[in-house]
């Protein structure tokens, strides 16, 4: 690529070259929801005000123990200058009791008052340090996870299917440029990365080179092609599953390196056509495609006692056999006998579901 055009496609600084503390606005790892800085400031000022009033009342009730008789305003003034360590010296404790109160109560209160005033700054610095260490540890350990690029309708559905099939939220990383979409992903407990999936440095931040699979689900087909090219370049071993709207773009995704391409418009069109003729079939298809409801399509390795058997005679309803990475339907000659190392594609009943009568 010629030098004048380089800035149009690449930033001056690669994200993956930045130190971890510079990625606080890029990577979000779910954890306890922290209060806003303004809430922390307001709460600490309230505590400081309560402490000030308490010391004021204490000094006012013992107003005869000071260098001059105290009014309530004098007691408030004395408390303020004492707790803030200003200490002008115009009002001082003179009796043994007043001095003992200052030693045992006012001095610890002064320390607590200062901690409250600087606590917000310390809290923010501590929180940022904690998040930086969390990001550093996550980037070192993350591997064999799934990266979902695009958290629109398709991306959210893909994540729902993954989690319903047993994948923990900690094994899913969402990449998107929309902060509202990332906020929805964070509420699900997912790790999020703010940036474009077309950029290699963003994909590296998301751990794509060490990912087991990558789901490409942007809103447009041209973006899907660019994302797939970028992912395949930095993650040659990852399984890439991509979605396109139009069937004529399927070959572009396959040429870009996608292992599997889902055509959303054709799938929706087929379901719409079926719904006009046999709506119950569509209801059953939706059931099969929802891993957390009713029935679901799943795969599993064959058991030792199933080797050599006809898959039609097994306890599960088998749809096909996966052998050496190839899928053979149940009616194909290759699927007549189960062989060692095969995986069965079957219909699984989700836990806790009872058979229901299909309505006419």
Automatic annotation (TrEMBL):
Membrane topology, as annotated: Multi-pass membrane protein
GO biological process, alphabetically ordered: monoatomic ion transmembrane transport; potassium ion transport
Bilayer-crossing regions: 45-61, 103-125
Gene3D superfamilies hit by this protein: 1.10.287.70, NAD(P)-binding Rossmann-like Domain
Cross-referenced SUPFAM superfamilies: NAD(P)-binding Rossmann-fold domains, Voltage-gated potassium channels
Alphabetically ordered keywords of this record: Ion channel, Ion transport, Membrane, Transmembrane, Transmembrane helix, Transport
DNA repair in keyword set: no
Protein location: Cell membrane
Residue ranges of every copy of the RCK N-terminal domain listed in the record: 143-263
Pfam families on file: Ion_trans_2 (PF07885), TrkA_N (PF02254)
PROSITE patterns per the UniProt record, alphabetical: RCK_N
Main location: membrane
One of the record's GO cellular component terms: plasma membrane
Record-linked InterPro entries: K_chnl_dom (IPR013099), NAD(P)-bd_dom_sf (IPR036291), RCK_N (IPR003148), Trk_Ktr_HKT_K-transport (IPR050721)
PANTHER family the UniProt entry points to: POTASSIUM CHANNEL PROTEIN 2-RELATED-RELATED, POTASSIUM CHANNEL PROTEIN YUGO-RELATED
Record's protein name: Potassium channel family protein
């Amino acid at each position: 690529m010629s030098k004048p055009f380089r800035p149009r496609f690449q930033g001056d600084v690669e994200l993956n070259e930045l130190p971890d503390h510079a990625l606080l606005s890029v990577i979000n790892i779910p954890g306890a929801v922290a209060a806003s800085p303004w809430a922390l400031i307001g709460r600490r000022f309230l505590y400081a005000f309560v402490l000030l009033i308490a010391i004021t009342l204490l000094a006012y009730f013992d107003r005869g123990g000071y260098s001059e008789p105290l009014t309530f305003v004098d007691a408030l003034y004395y408390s303020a200058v004492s707790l803030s360590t200003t200490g002008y010296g115009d009002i001082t404790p003179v009796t043994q009791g007043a001095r003992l109160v200052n030693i045992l109560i006012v001095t610890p209160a002064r320390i607590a008052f200062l901690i409250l005033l600087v606590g917000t700054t310390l809290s923010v610095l501590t929180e940022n340090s904690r998040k930086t260490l969390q990001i550093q540890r996550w980037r070192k350990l993350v591997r064999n996870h799934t990266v979902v690029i695009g958290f629109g309708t398709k991306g959210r559905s893909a994540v729902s299917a993954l989690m319903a099939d047993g994948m923990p939220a900690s094994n899913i990383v969402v990449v998107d440029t929309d902060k509202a979409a990332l906020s929805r992903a964070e509420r699900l407990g997912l790790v999020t990365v703010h940036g474009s999936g077309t950029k290699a440095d963003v994909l590296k931040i998301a751990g794509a080179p060490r990912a087991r699979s990558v789901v490409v689900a942007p809103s447009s087909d041209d973006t899907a092609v660019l994302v797939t090219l970028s992912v395949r370049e930095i993650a040659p071993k990852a399984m890439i599953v991509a979605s396109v709207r139009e069937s004529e773009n399927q070959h572009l995704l396959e040429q870009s390196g996608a292992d599997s391409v889902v055509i959303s418009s054709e799938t929706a069109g087929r379901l719409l056509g079926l719904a006009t003729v046999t709506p119950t079939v569509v209801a059953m298809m939706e059931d099969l495609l929802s891993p957390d409801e009713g029935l679901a399509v799943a795969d599993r390795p064959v058991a030792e006692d199933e080797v050599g058997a006809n898959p039609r005679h097994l306890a599960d309803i088998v749809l096909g056999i996966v052998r050496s990475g190839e899928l053979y339907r149940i009616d194909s000659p290759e699927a007549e006998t189960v062989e060692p190392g095969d995986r069965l594609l079957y219909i699984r009943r989700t836990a806790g579901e009872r058979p229901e009568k299909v309505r006419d």
